[in-house]
Specification:
This protein is an alpha+beta fold. Helices cover 41% and strands 14% of the residues. The protein is globular, with a radius of gyration of 19 Å. The termini are far apart.
């Protein structure tokens, strides 16, 4: 599959089969990630590849965030039963795909590289991963949202300082065929400047 075809055809796929993914395919995805452009060659990415019971790491993060948020917003403390139910329902989120790759940014201390550029590099790495997965016949969805950036999630993955989670890439064989998509033509969002 050529790169233009991969870019046009890749779609986020939320329904993934639980079939295991070969180690060689996972390694191809990760290899593509590390070739993302990055200012001053800082390579500011970190990855956690979670499969099988290893997905409990992410499940624990989702649960800790949900419990912390519930306790912060509740007028009264959660009962043990309410906390167990909240924990159980949130832990299941990590098992919606056979493989989840957590991706974090670990910004360099180089003063020449603004932190925003480190995030841009990691986002490029995620795009490389998703395009490569698509080319290999796999489906992906990049999951983010408030729990991703919550301090409890950062703590769960051992992030410190300026490090921050940027998302969770759920990977698997597609259970559904993605629908065709349309985009606004680039001409409507482009200004040509020649003088």
């Amino acid at each position: 599959m050529d790169v233009k075809e991969a870019i046009r055809e890749r779609r986020s796929i939320g329904k993934l089969k639980q079939d295991p993914i070969e180690q060689a395919l996972i390694e191809e995805i990760l290899e593509a990630a590390v070739w993302a452009p990055n200012h001053a060659h800082t390579e500011p990415w970190r990855f956690w590849v979670m499969s099988g019971e290893g997905r409990k790491l992410l499940g624990r993060g989702y649960a800790e965030v949900a419990i912390a948020e519930a306790k912060a917003g509740a007028d009264a403390a959660l009962s043990e039963e309410e906390e167990d139910q909240l924990r159980s329902s949130n832990e299941k989120k990590a098992f919606r795909a056979p493989l989840v790759i957590a991706v974090a940014v670990s910004p360099s201390e180089k003063p020449v590289v603004p932190v925003i550029e480190e995030y841009a590099a990691v986002h490029c790495a995620v795009q490389n991963m998703m395009l490569t997965a698509h080319a290999l016949g796999l489906g992906t969805i990049w999951r983010t949202g408030d729990p991703t950036y919550h301090p409890k999630m950062q703590e769960n993955f051992g992030l410190s300082g300026k490090e921050e989670m940027v998302g969770f890439i759920y990977v698997g064989y597609p259970e559904v065929i993605p629908t065709k998509a349309a985009r606004v033509p680039f001409a409507l969002k482009t200004q040509w400047v020649t003088e």
